Amino acid sequence: MDAAGPVSGPAGTPLLDRIRVGSAPDSWGVWFADDPRQVPWERFLDEVAGAGYEWIELGPYGYLPTDPARLADETARRGLRVSAGTVFTSLHHGPAVWDATWAHVRQVAALARAVGAGHLVVIPSFWRDDRTAALVEPPELTAEQWTHLARGTERLAHEVRYRYGLRIVVHPHADTHLDTEEHVERFLDATDPGLVDLCLDTGHYAYCGGDSVKLIETYGERIGYLHLKQVDPAVLADVVANGVAFGPAVRRGVMCEPPSGVPALPPVLAAAQRLGVDLFAIVEQDMYPCPPDKPLPIAVRTRRFLRSCGA
Prior knowledge:
By secondary structure, the protein is of the alpha/beta class. Helices cover 38% and strands 15% of the residues.
């Protein structure tokens, strides 16, 4: 179907027929493979299916079962399918970190492929600790580190595609070296468009001052995946003014339930639809840690909201 066609969704909204909506453990307050403050994985699977989602991500490796047969059974009997796995990398440190990086990546990639996923979300490592806010390294990369990041990402993309048939999508993220519009554009311009795509997280990009619609319209051919998220402008203003790290900012509620924050999601979804390609749009609302009964009602309301947008 032509993405620019006249088909309409609910109440005359555009039908977003190229957008495949899902959710992730992150929307249930899951940041780590094992943490007593997180909901058990069985409850996550039950509730994400009950909220009306069909697609999920793996979340941190080890949170969901890592045996492919068991994971396939647990997802299938709930009517769920897996869109992607996720890895954190420190490729800006150069060849010295390749072996350790690949040892982890191949675990996640193998599991993702085994359960039918087509993508691997790659997140750069934090320059300050997301729990303690302690400075880990300088927030700006050197020219040499930018080169390491670009070439290392291309190498990773090639290996993941060749060995596992997955496409990597690199995720700009708050408190990493890939965050602002300037940094994202520098990264895209430095990497091979035939190998490296972007996972545009609307919340993180807004957190760092970026305009998601502008990025989609400018670098549309590089947008390979979406994370749908919003930030609370008032909380964000305080976070920026006081230099608050991302982890404490999340505990303050900087990521909020749609449609109460920014960016507005209908224009983002419409811009993505105009690209004329199938895209996953995975809902994430960072809430670590959160009460176990909090995520499900939010997930239900968010799915209802996205349906009202045509997705």
